[in-house]
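User: Structure with S-adenosylmethionine, tokens only please.
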Amino acid sequence: MSDKQYYENDRIWASGFEHSLDEIERLRAIKSLIAKEVTSLLDVGCGNGHFVNSMLRTEPIGRVCGVDRSRSALSLVKTEKYEASADNLPFKDNEFDLVCAFEVLEHLPIAIYEQAIREITRVAKKHVLISVPFQENIRSELISCPKCFCAFNRSYHLRSFDSNTIEGLFGDSNNKPLLQETKFCGTVRNYWGLSWLKRLVAGFRTPTLPPNAVCPHCGYASKQVERSAEHAEELTLDPPSTSQRVGQLLRGMLPSSTQARWVIAHYTFDQVDSNLQ
Ligand SMILES: C[S@@+](CC[C@H](N)C(=O)[O-])C[C@H]1O[C@@H](n2cnc3c(N)ncnc32)[C@H](O)[C@@H]1O
Ligand SMILES: [Zn+2]
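Assistant:
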């Protein structure tokens, strides 16, 4: 069993997540890092086209192209698009002025991750733009499968990034893109003691799977995912369960602090006077 079912879940792509204030801010920050000279771009793991569709609508760029492993997500992409995995991009060397990967690298298992980094470098001519969650505490969002008991991050995030990993993302090969600029955006609230509280509660019963959960190990799917596969046209989320409501209430009582949600990093293959828009 693989994580395929998770990414083919229509519920995620039609949820309208891209209309949140944080997402709008992220899109604006990403666009502000695109150099004027760029005439072709590839978005690796483009999802439902949140970025590429917007580029098509608002920015005069010659070629806008998206790649994703999810057929369900690609059905909403309006630009040139390909179903492919990030570790095997169906393009020539240096084919795009700019190659982007937004909120993708944290999802990739190690074997795919390292090859995906090489592929991004191979097909990019001049610029690379990466966005990832910043200093995410992956353990605080672990859930466990009620069938096989495998524990996994509820968003399928497999790795966390900080300033050092962003700086050294492309390793130390000769022809590696160099970090030029970073931007931070969005807000995430960290609750002190929340992971202990969760462990205490989970000690007595299995935490509820969120609506879009599919176990990456055995394929167990929450009822909502099974229903969405059968009735793709009726995509409404069930209201939060009682335990989710109790969780929200408890969070509200804990002390908390905020930090940036995402980091967006701009790399180029040589030192340029990046004439930003
Ligand atoms: C969190 S979504 C981000 C979507 C979009 N880039 C955005 O910023 O809204 C992660 C995306 O990575 C895609 N993905 C995961 N593994 C992939 C792989 N091996 N190759 C290509 N895309 C992949 C998923 O299908 C999904 O569309
Ligand atoms: Zn399982």
